[in-house]
Write a structure and sequence with these properties.
globular, Adenine-n6-DNA-methyltransferase TaqI, Chain A, domain 2, two-stranded antiparallel ribbon, alpha+beta, 4-stranded antiparallel β-sheet
């Protein structure tokens, strides 16, 4: 048993270690949609892993690029479905995006992705679990070691290697509710923390400005300055509260 699997057994002692391919229906590199000779389909968007929302769901840019009509059969075979995961297979970035449901058009990917598909009955939960797993630092390090290099410029993670990735088995029946609560809760806290950090940066700017003009403000703008200080104090209190909540989790 290799070092990676030993670590998994240590971290997840109560879970059976299986292969990613065991819980998926298909893992394959996406082929770019071909226009073909019979151009019968035009209502589609091509997505990129550069466009993920805060929750890791793939989005379509506000101004999507123009795509000409394509072969309908190619669209049918290459379109992405709700619950699919796609990840980069060139280089070692390993962005992972989840295909959502709120798209106005059919969406397809470019040819720099691997698509992971799950049985329909379990894609809602298992896809989120796998997405989170693939983002673990030591998992990304392991995948980076599986990269094959055809040339200096072409570093590729193959779908075959990804299919062999060891992963703790996820018991949807007993853990789905708790896992999703924890998953979305942690992301929401991270988003809120970032907002507070942005507010903190604004507070520092305010404090610097107030410090530099303390004499004139004290004489001419005392009421306005008091309001600014009260607003900043509320943000500081919220940050302290969030810090306490996050410390309680670790």
């Amino acid at each position: 048993m290799n070092k990676f699997e030993n670590r998994l057994k240590e971290l997840f002692a109560n879970a059976k270690i299986i292969k990613l391919g065991d819980i998926t229906t298909k893992i394959a590199t996406i082929s770019k949609v071909r226009v073909g000779q019979t151009r019968t389909f035009s209502e589609y968007d091509e997505i990129s892993l550069n466009d993920l929302d805060e929750y890791g769901v793939i989005t379509v840019p506000e101004i999507p690029k123009y795509l000409g009509p394509a072969n309908a059969s190619s669209i049918s075979s290459q379109r992405l479905r709700e619950g699919d995961l796609v990840l980069t297979h060139r280089g070692s970035v390993f962005k992972v995006g989840l295909v959502g449901s709120e798209y106005k058009k059919v969406i397809v990917g470019n040819n720099s992705m691997i698509r992971i598909q799950f049985p329909h009955a379990r894609c809602k939960y298992t896809s989120r679990y796998v997405q989170a797993y693939l983002q673990l630092p030591f998992v990304k390090e392991y995948l980076n070691n599986q990269i094959t290099c055809g040339s200096k410029e072409r570093k590729i993670l193959s779908s075959a290697n990804l299919s062999e990735l060891p992963i703790p088995e996820f018991d949807e029946k007993n853990q789905t509710f708790d896992f999703l609560d924890l998953y979305y809760g942690r992301i929401s806290m991270t988003i809120e923390a970032q907002k507070l950090l942005d507010e903190a940066a604004r507070i520092v700017e305010n404090m610097e400005a107030l410090k530099e003009s303390v004499v004139s403000d004290a004489l001419n703008r005392s009421h306005e300055v008091e309001m600014i200080l009260q607003s900043d104090e509320r943000v500081l209190v919220a940050m302290k509260k969030l810090r306490m909540e996050m410390e309680a989790l670790v």
